[in-house]
Amino acid sequence: MLYRQHRALTQTLKKGVSTLGLLAGMSLTPIHGWAGDLTIEVRGVRNAQGNIIAVLYDEQQAFLAQDWMRATASVQLVAREGTTRFTIHDLNPKSYAVAVLHDENGNADLDLRDAVPTEGYAYSQGAGQFQLPSFEEARFEVTSKDAPVIIQLIYHQR
User: Fold this and answer.
1) SS3 of residue 50 by DSSP
2) pLDDT tier at 153 (50, 70, 90 boundaries)?
């Protein structure tokens, strides 16, 4: 069951990650929008292996489908143990949700053992610890001011 619920995140990452390759600490500017900045702080990265992948959504249907083609922005950063921060600039003030993966082996896949993720993952607002959350559960607002969002990675097993 957990396998199916997180499979959408895996498919999103497999499709979208090949087009990105940013170094840790860099900022992104999305194609559309002009308003606020969003700083995302990913905490609890257990090691410096692989990448941190984040996908930002501004619509419910795209988030639920984990459809990276309809994502507002996506980021791939080199993993750093502890905390990784990045900023997405010039976002429209509205609701967003983010999905994050610590892709430790760099295969752009949420690896599983016995249907349980072996790599770290998380959604905004701490939603979806055992299933894909709704957009409403993961939703947060971006205003014209810098709005930091803290993401605490979840690791079920090693």
Assistant:
1) coil
2) very high
Dist. CA 12–CA 25, nearest whole Å: 23
Domain count, the chain: 1
Distance CA 21, CA 3 (A): 27
Residues with Cβ within 8 Å of residue 69, at least 6 apart in sequence: 15, 16
For residue 15, being part of any structural domain is answered with yes
Residue 44 domain boundaries: 2-152
Asked if residue 158 belongs to a domain, the reply is no
pLDDT tens digits for 61-106?
A: 999 998 989 999 999 999 999 999 999 988 898 999 999 999 999 9
- pTM for this model (two decimals): 0.78
Helix (H, G, I), strand (E, B) or coil at 44: strand
Does the residue 157 lie in any domain? no
